Each structure stands twice: as C-alpha cells, then as structure tokens.
C-alpha cells in the first residue's frame, strides 16, 4: 500500500537547521516523512570534501539532497556523487533569495533564467535515474504573474521535470532579508492550486505557512504534497502528530522515548569528536507547548556547551522539568 505520509508530507530544506543530526531526530518522530538536506552548493561538492557535505545516516531515508547552483557541469558532477551516496531525490534550489546566493546567480533569481535551470536539469538527468525535482517560488519581484510561473514550469517540463515544490509566495530580491522573504510577501495558495488544475499530471507539493493538521488536510484536497518548514523545526512533535494522522497504525510516541532513543546516537556523535550542542540544539523544541518546555530548553541551553558535556545533559533536563516528563 502507498505510504501516504511518505508521498505527501515532507520537511523543508533549511540551512543550518536540517543537518544530519536534526534529520536523525526528526526521523524518530516521523518514520516516513520525506526529509530534505540543507542546501549544498554544487561548487562545494565539486571542489571540496564531498563526503563532508553528502554523508548521512541510513535511518534518514527517504531523503532528498537539495543542490544550489547554475552551472550544468558542476550540477551534474554533484548529482553523480549524490547518486553514489544513495539519495532518494535531488532537488534544485530556485527559491533562496539571500544575497550570497544571488551573487552566485542561483537560488530564486534563477526563476528569471528558466533555460539555465532546464540546462542544469538535463545535465543532471544524464548522470542519474534518481528523480530530480525543483523547489521554486511563485515569482520574483515584479515577475509575479501566473503566466511567468507557467512559463518557468513549462520550460522545466520540457527538460523532463515532473515534480515541483512551490513556496507559495514571491521572493523580493532587493531589500528584504531571507527571513523577511519568508514572512512579508503574502502567501498565495490559490496560485499553486491553479497550477495543479492546469497541469494535473505534475506532482505539485505546496510549501509555506503550514502549521497544523487541518491546514495540511486542506491543501492535500487539491495538491499532491505538503512541505513543512519552520513548524517542523520549532515544534518537532508536530511531525509525530502528522505521522499518526496519516498513518494511524503508528501510535503517538512518548517524547521521553524519543529522548532515550537519541542517547546512543549522541554517544556515537561524541565519540566521533563533535560537541554535544550540535545535536541537542535541534531538540530544544521537543516539549514546545507542554508543561516544562521552558525548563527543558533552559537546562539544555545552559549545560550542553560545558566542557565534557555528554548525553546526561538530556537526562538532567528531563529531571529539571516540573513534572516527570
Ligand atoms: C532557517 C531557514 C533556512 C532555510 N534554508 C533553505 C534552504 O537551504 N533551501 C531552501 O530551498 N529553502 C530554505 N528555507 C526556506 C524553507 O525551505 C521554506 O521554503 C520556508 O521556510 C517556508 O516554509 P514554512 O512556512 O513551512 O517554514 C529556509 C528556511 C529557514 C527558516
């Protein structure tokens, strides 16, 4: 039977947030949501220590690598390496508005250069049979008409793209920070619904502002998938609730059990020479909205960076909560 959760629910690529430690933690909360890496630039993979950027834990599947870049040769070279690592999807970033990305002429500004994205797409398809997808906005700056979006999508369809993840707001490339670009331009879900109506054979995943199960249910009436970003990071238990909703045979996990399951992972990370905080920073929201959430956060924040800190920091944080968590 098709796993509705894997086919419909994904966690957004988020720089500095959805690293492999975060994804390992999220996977415990949701056995089947599709996870995305942070954006990795094709240049970094092409020139640098590709293992550092590409390695992941087996438990993270199903997992997509998000690539940033505009050079077909480098995008293909990065794809070929990602293929060897066993990713389940490669996604091209056409949504990031940061200055750094713009100065490299990729990310959201590529919406104005669909032929370049299509060229990358073709070069990447030549080296792998892993599905290649595109994450985009509905427009950039004053290029915000539906016709502009359709032209972008049609150019990519001609290159073979079948799946689009659409962040349902435009990006303003001049004058707004990346953070503002996730809040200020209004969400326009209707635009994404229209795209699916006009291209029913495409797989269209919507992203932007999804924060509860009712909203996710609503968009899935019209679309193939829902990608969750900030809510999944700030309130990771939302992923467990989604999993249980879409896969009712999965009961809701106990948060404490999730913590217990993180302990051996953390021990392994520490043995590998990484500091505790690299993992625990992603777990601060585990009790969000629950009694004791503040004590949990504070105890970890105050103690995780101390010299020699180990997984006992999490046990102590549980004990610091006002009622037995
Ligand atoms: C901290 C942070 C980093 C992000 N980094 C990326 C990225 O690397 N690639 C990308 O396509 N989008 C990135 N995004 C945007 C998210 O993928 C998503 O499109 C956006 O947050 C809207 O979804 P949401 O309302 O569910 O959070 C980032 C968002 C945040 C909050």
Task: Report what the structure shows.
This protein is an alpha/beta fold. It folds into two domains: 243 residues, TIM Barrel (Alpha-Beta Barrel), CATH 3.20.20.70; 65 residues, Four Helix Bundle (Hemerythrin (Met), subunit A). The chain is built from 16 helices and eight strands. Strands 1-2-3-4-5-6-7-8 form an eight-stranded parallel β-barrel, surrounded by five helices. Strand 5, helix 8 and strand 6 form a beta-alpha-beta unit. Helix 5 crosses helix 7, helix 7 packs parallel to helix 8 and helix 15 packs antiparallel against helix 16. It is globular and about 55 Å long. The two termini are 36 Å apart. Flavin mononucleotide binds next to strand 2 and helix 11.
Q: What does the secondary structure layout of this molecule look like, with pairings?
A:
Elements: H1 4-8, E1 9-11, H2 20-29, E2 34-41, H3 42-47, H4 50-54, E3 63-68, H5 72-85, E4 89-94, H6 99-103, H7 114-125, E5 132-137, H8 146-159, E6 163-167, H9 189-198, E7 203-207, H10 213-220, E8 225-228, H11 230-234, H12 237-246, H13 255-271, H14 277-280, H15 293-303, H16 312-319
Parallel strand pairs: 1-2, 1-8, 2-3, 3-4, 4-5, 5-6, 6-7, 7-8
Helix pairs in contact: 5-7, 7-8, 15-16
The chain binds flavin mononucleotide.
Structural class: alpha/beta
Spell out the CATH superfamily of the largest domain: Aldolase class I
Bound molecules: flavin mononucleotide
What level of helicity do the residues show? Answer: 40-55%
| CATH secondary-structure class of the largest domain | Alpha Beta
- Averaged pLDDT, please? 95
Share of residues in strands: 5-15%
């Amino acid at each position: 039977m098709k796993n509705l959760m894997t086919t419909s629910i994904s966690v957004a690529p988020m720089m500095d947030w959805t690293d492999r430690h975060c994804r390992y933690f999220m996977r415990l909360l949701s056995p089947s949501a599709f996870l995305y890496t942070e954006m990795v630039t094709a240049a970094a993979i092409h020139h640098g220590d590709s293992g550092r950027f590409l390695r992941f834990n087996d438990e993270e599947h199903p997992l997509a690598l998000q690539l940033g870049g505009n050079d077909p040769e480098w995008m293909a070279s990065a794809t070929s390496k990602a293929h060897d690592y066993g990713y389940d999807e490669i996604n091209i970033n056409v949504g990031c508005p940061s200055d750094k990305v713009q100065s490299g002429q990729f990310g959201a500004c590529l919406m104005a250069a669909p032929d370049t994205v299509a060229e990358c797409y073709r070069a990447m398809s030549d080296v792998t049979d892993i599905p290649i997808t595109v994450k985009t906005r509905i427009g950039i700056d004053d290029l915000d008409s539906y016709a502009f979006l359709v032209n972008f999508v049609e150019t990519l369809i001609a290159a073979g793209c079948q799946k689009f993840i659409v962040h349902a707001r435009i990006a303003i490339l001049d004058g707004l920070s990346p953070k503002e670009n996730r809040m200020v331009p209004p969400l326009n879900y209707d635009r994404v619904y229209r795209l699916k109506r006009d291209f029913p054979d495409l797989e269209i995943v919507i992203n932007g502002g999804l924060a509860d199960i009712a909203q996710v249910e609503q968009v899935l009436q019209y679309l193939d998938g829902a990608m969750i970003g900030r809510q999944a990071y700030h309130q990771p238990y939302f992923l467990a609730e989604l999993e249980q909703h879409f896969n009712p045979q999965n009961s809701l996990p106990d948060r404490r059990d999730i913590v217990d399951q993180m302990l051996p992972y953390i021990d392994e990370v520490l043995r590998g020479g990484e500091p505790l905080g690299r993992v625990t920073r992603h777990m601060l929201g585990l009790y969000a909205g629950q009694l004791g959430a503040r004590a949990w956060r504070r105890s970890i924040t105050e103690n995780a960076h101390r010299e020699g800190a180990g997984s006992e920091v999490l046990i102590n944080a549980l004990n610091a909560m006002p009622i037995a968590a």
